[in-house]
Amino acid sequence: MQGRCNTRNTREVITVVDKQEVLDKHRLHKGKIEVLGKVPVETKEDLSTYYTPGVAYVSEAINANVDTAYEYTNKGNTLAIVSDGTRILGLGDVGPEAGLAVMEGKALLFKKFGGVDAVPLCIRKSTEEEIVTFLKQIEPTYGAINIEDIESPKVLGIVKKAATELGIPVFHDDQQGTSAVVLAALTNALRLVGKDKSVKITVMGAGSAGMGIARLLSFTGFKNIYVLDSSGIIYRGRAKGMNEFKEELANATNPENVQGGLEDAIKGADVFIGVSGIAGALNKELIKTMSERPIVFGLSNPTPEISYADAVEAGAFIVATGRSDTPNQINNVVSFPGISRGLLEVHAKTVTPEMLVAAANAMAKSVGRRLSREMIIPSMVDKTDAIKITQSVAAAVGMKAVEQGAARVIKTDDEIRRSTKELIMRYRKIEKRCSVSKNKKKKEN
Q: Cα–Cα distance between 77 and 347 in angstroms, integer?
């Protein structure tokens, strides 16, 4: 669900980039991120303060109370992006070195939209237990961990186990970031069609995204959910292609224990959510079997389960995709910067479903008076909007963490919003300097 965001109520044409130009730019800059110091080291006093001997005082203070690491170091604003490169974008298992290019890009988005210092850590393919052990070993350095692009169902086990064994949030964007932004979009879509949580929802795809969506919708109170994988509808008692996570889904969804395929699951459905990765899996005829004013989210990239135009032509009342060249682009970039910002602001110990619901509600409300059939989710394209969205999501998550007793520090809504804006604006100043320097070099050449 990655890609460029959509502008307000307009159809943006995807920018076609030249392969050689992309490679040349990456080679020129040697990647997309770097580490910069926050303080000057120009005098002996600076050196003595920020390194030896002065830094010994800081180490002593942290040794006396490890939680002060959040105050004296950058732990409170640093997140690790951990991947083994086994499920990279649409490429699949390309390995950790190839995955590093993608993780750098993700780190750039964390910084730009959330003011978060994110560090890519691409590791060799390992077992579930080995990766959890690795996460526990790096925990002292980071305020949160984002699991990214690890194959399913292994990643589901990693996140489940790590969440109970680590004292910092372990956030899986494919599950939690996706589910939060889908819940936000669905909340607004249901407002427009005048329906409630009694709707019938068909989720096509039972990987990380599908699992996350079904779980959060179920947690939020949606009961009439039907999830499909490559073997058809997931139901209680099914033997083929099941695992512990699909067994959990079987018990939480499909109240009538329906069996069959997509045509059985979608008949009479109010909502279709596609995260299957199968282009063209949904056709016009199937949409015509759905209920009145159907909602269709075809979120697979680069080609959705059904095109925007075909879904509208078939009678879908509201249509969303993961693409930037149609209205209603449902993209994780709306969710993960604010969620991570909120977790880090209060030095959260974990991330909970309640926090994700709070984030979804904040995203849904961010649309405001612009809510329409072609605007059910906010966009990060507009710089002013982007800050406000991240502020709202961060504040919602941070305050929910405080309410649940999952925060190490207590902050107010205003404090979180102010800190969020300051950190994002700090990066924008760096971005502006880079742009000025780039233009200056162009003129000199």
A: 9
